[in-house]
Automatic annotation (TrEMBL):
Keywords assigned: Signal, Transport
Keyword match Signal: yes
Designated name of the protein: ABC transporter substrate-binding protein
GO biological process, one term: peptide transport
Highest taxon above the source species: Bacteria
Signal sequence residues: 1-23
Length: 509
C-alpha cells in the first residue's frame, strides 16, 4: 500500500513539474534549446520579484547587497569594498565598488545605492526598523549614513536580502528588478516559475551557465519526483524521509548541513491566557524537543535550547527542563486552571485557542499537530489554522494564541538581528508587541556596544531574560539539505540560505 502511494506521489510530482515547466511554451521555446541551462526546484515562495520584499531575487543571483556573509558567519565586502564608523556606530562611511554596472548598463554609484536604500525603507517597515537610518549623503562612490542611534552592528544589517541594491528608476520592479548580479530576470510567474539569463556585464567574472529556470513547488514529494524524473537538476529540500534512498542513487549527490534556523513557537500576548507566564511555560514544556526532531524532521536536526545554535559563543545555556504533559499541567495549575471532566478550566471556561502554521515548511504543520495532540491529553482545545502568508496574518489578526514559525536567528553570526526583530519595540516579528523593560535595556546596550566580548555577555543576559519569561519557545534547529545531479558543479550549500544561484554553478558535459 505504501509503495502504491509513493508511486502515485511520484507521478503527481512529475506531472506538476512538467506542467510548470511547459507553461508559456512560445516564450520559452528558444530558452529550452539552450544546452547550458540548469533547472532549480525549491520551496521558496515567490509572489513578487521585488527584492526589497522577497528573498528570491538575491537567491536567484539577480541582485546583490553591499555586504555579504561567509560560511563561518563573518561579514565581508560585496558591492561596498570597505566601510568604517566615524563615531562608534552612528555615522558610517561606505565606499562603493568601482566599475560595477546594473544589468541595464547604468553605473553603480553612491547616489544609486542611496536611492535604493531609501526605497527599501519606504516599502518595508521591517527594514526601516532594523536599519534605523536618519539620513544619507552620496558623494561619488562614497556613501555616508547617519543612524537614529548608535548601531554597532550596522554593516551586518546590510547583509539582509531585502537590503539588496537595485536601479529604482526602472519600472515594473515587482516582475523585473534590475540589479547587479550574475543573472537577470527574463520572465516570471508568481509562485511558479522564474526564467533567468546570464548577465554579460557582470563585474565579478563570467557566469558558467547561460540560463537558469527556478521552479517552485511546496510539495516535498513533488520536488523529489522532479529530480528523479530528470525535470530538475537541483532540488532544494527534497522529501525528508527519502534522503537515505536518494543517497543510494549513484547519479545523485545529497548535501546535508546544519542550518542557522530555529523552529519556534511565537506566543500572542494580546490573548489573555498567554499574558500569563505560567501558561507560556506550560506550552514550552509540552513538547519533548527530541520527539519533535524525530517526528517532524526524521532526525534531520537537533533539539534547541534557545534561539541560537549552541556553537555560537553568545548562546545562553538554559537549564534543563522536564518535558511532558505532567509538567505542563503543573504550570497550568500555577496559572489558576483546574482540571474538570477532562478539561482545563478557569472561570468556567475551557482553555482553548488557535495555533497558526503554514505549508512552506512541512515540518511546521506536523509540529502544530503534535501540540494539538498533546494538549488534548490534558484537556486543552487547540484548533489548527493553516495560512499561506503567516507574516501578514500575524500582524493583521489577533485571533490566534500560538504560531509555529521558522526563522534564521543569526544569519550574520551575530545576535542583534534576532533580538531587535523579535523583541524590539518596532520589531517585525514582535507581533504581540511584547515589552520587557529589562530586555529592552539590554538590547539597547547591545546596539551601542562594539566590543565583541561585551556583546557576548549582553546576549547571554538577553537569553536568560527570554528563557525565564518564556517570551517564545525554541523547539528545534533543522538541517539544510539538497539533492542534485552528479553533473552539477560549483554548488555550495549555505547555512544562511541566501546565496543559491551563483556565477560558479555549472553543468558538466
Amino acid at each position: 500500500m505504501k509503495r502504491q502511494i509513493w508511486k502515485t506521489a511520484i507521478m503527481m510530482g512529475v506531472v506538476a513539474c512538467m506542467l510548470t515547466a511547459c507553461s508559456g511554451n512560445k516564450e520559452n521555446s528558444s530558452v529550452d534549446s539552450d544546452r547550458n541551462k540548469l533547472t532549480f526546484l525549491s520551496n521558496f515562495p515567490t509572489d513578487t520579484l521585488d527584492p526589497q520584499l522577497n528573498y528570491t531575487p538575491l537567491r536567484a543571483g539577480i541582485v546583490e547587497t553591499l555586504v555579504k556573509t561567509t560560511e563561518d558567519s563573518q561579514i565581508e565586502p560585496w558591492l561596498a569594498e570597505s566601510w568604517k564608523t566615524l563615531d562608534n556606530g552612528t555615522t558610517w562611511e561606505f565606499i562603493i565598488r568601482d566599475e560595477v554596472v546594473f544589468q541595464n548598463g547604468k553605473t553603480l554609484d553612491a547616489k544609486a545605492v542611496k536611492s535604493s536604500l531609501e526605497r527599501t525603507m519606504k516599502v518595508s517597515e521591517a527594514m526601516k526598523a532594523s536599519l534605523k537610518i536618519k539620513e544619507m549623503k552620496a558623494d561619488g562612490q562614497k556613501l555616508t549614513i547617519v543612524t537614529q542611534e548608535p548601531v554597532a552592528s550596522f554593516p551586518s544589517e546590510l547583509v539582509h536580502p531585502n537590503a539588496a541594491i537595485i536601479d529604482v528608476t526602472e519600472k515594473n520592479i515587482e516582475a523585473h528588478p534590475v540589479g547587479t548580479g550574475p543573472f537577470e530576470a527574463v520572465s516570471s510567474q508568481p509562485n511558479s516559475k522564474l526564467e533567468l539569463k546570464k548577465n554579460d556585464q557582470y563585474w565579478d567574472g563570467e557566469s558558467k551557465l547561460d540560463r537558469v529556470t527556478m521552479l517552485y513547488n511546496e510539495d516535498a514529494n513533488a520536488r523529489t519526483a522532479g529530480l528523479q524524473s530528470g525535470e530538475a537538476d537541483i532540488v532544494y529540500r527534497p522529501e525528508i524521509e527519502n534522503l537515505e534512498l536518494l543517497k543510494k542513487d549513484e547519479s545523485l549527490v545529497v548535501d546535508v548541513v546544519p542550518s542557522l534556523r530555529t523552529q519556534m513557537l511565537l506566543y500572542n500576548t494580546n490573548i489573555e491566557a498567554f499574558k500569563d507566564v505560567n501558561v507560556r511555560k506550560a506550552f514550552d514544556v509540552l513538547l519533548n524537543r527530541q520527539d519533535v526532531v524525530d517526528y517532524t524532521l526524521a532526525g534531520q536536526g537537533v533539539a534547541a535550547n534557545g534561539p541560537f545554535l549552541k556553537e555560537f559563543s553568545f548562546a545562553y545555556d538554559a537549564p534543563k527542563k522536564e518535558f511532558g504533559t505532567e509538567s505542563a499541567k503543573e504550570y497550568l495549575k500555577k496559572a489558576g486552571y483546574k482540571f474538570e471532566s477532562n478539561q482545563v478550566v478557569k472561570d468556567g471556561k475551557q482553555l482553548s485557542f488557535t495555533i497558526l502554521t503554514y505549508p512552506y515548511r512541512p515540518e511546521l504543520p506536523l509540529m502544530a499537530q503534535l501540540i494539538q495532540s498533546e494538549a488534548k491529553k490534558i484537556g486543552v482545545k487547540v484548533e489548527i489554522q493553516q495560512v499561506e502568508n503567516i507574516d501578514e496574518y500575524m500582524t493583521t489578526n489577533s485571533d490566534w494564541g500560538i504560531a509555529t514559525y521558522s526563522l534564521i536567528t543569526a544569519p550574520r553570526g551575530d545576535s542583534s538581528y534576532f533580538l531587535n526583530s523579535v523583541y524590539g519595540k518596532d520589531g517585525f516579528y514582535n507581533v504581540g508587541h511584547y515589552d520587557n523593560p529589562a530586555l529592552s535595556d539590554v538590547i539597547k546596550q547591545l546596539n551601542e556596544t562594539v566590543d565583541e566580548q561585551k556583546r557576548v555577555e549582553l546576549t547571554r543576559q538577553a537569553g536568560k531574560i527570554i528563557n525565564d519569561g518564556v517570551l517564545h519557545s525554541a523547539i528545534v534547529h533543522p538541517n539544510n539539505f539538497v539533492a542534485y545531479k552528479e553533473n552539477v558543479k560549483g554548488w555550495q550549500m549555505t547555512k544562511s540560505e541566501y546565496y543559491v544561484i551563483t556565477k560558479d554553478l555549472a553543468l558538466q558535459e
